[in-house]
Fold this sequence. Notes:
With about 180 residues, the protein is α+β, with helices and mostly antiparallel strands. About 25% of the residues lie in helices and about 25% in strands. The protein contains 6 helices and 10 strands; from the N terminus they run H-E-E-E-E-H-H-H-E-E-H-E-E-E-E-H.
Amino acid sequence: MEDAYETDPTEILKEAERVIQRKTHKGLIYPHYNQHDDTTDTDRAKVYQSSGSYSDYWWSFLRLEETKVDDEELVEYVADGRGPFPEVDSTEELDQLPNEVSNEDLLDAKVKLEISGIELDVTLGDLTDGSTVRLAKKDGTYFVILTGGKPDIQAIDRNNKHTVFPDLNDFEELDAVLEQYL
């Protein structure tokens, strides 16, 4: 059919990975998709778990070879002083980090960004590519700028998530918000 819409499989994988990372407590996506170089690897699977510790049974349950997940590897790299991380002293250097990281999967690792006591969980890749998370400073005040789709503000407990403001559609213009700081 000439007029049929054909979906790009890569776009499906990108969206599936976003959903798994943000909405799922524990999951697996196959084939492994690397969003940073837009490749898939049918010899690997991507494992996600939202809690801080990874269950020993998870690997055997999935019949996978046990390996460290991205978050665990990044913690080891940083703790051991490996990789280019200790040399970064400017946000302008963050965009070069993906080229200097020997294991690209580290870019999928979650990092906790804290400002004024508020914590945000983002991936190292989100922080380094500059398209989703930007850091800035003016007159001793630090800014975190998040860009993307419409925000979803949720009330969360151990087992439930509920959108707090389901009809929030009217937002201030960015220029008006930033005007007081510039």
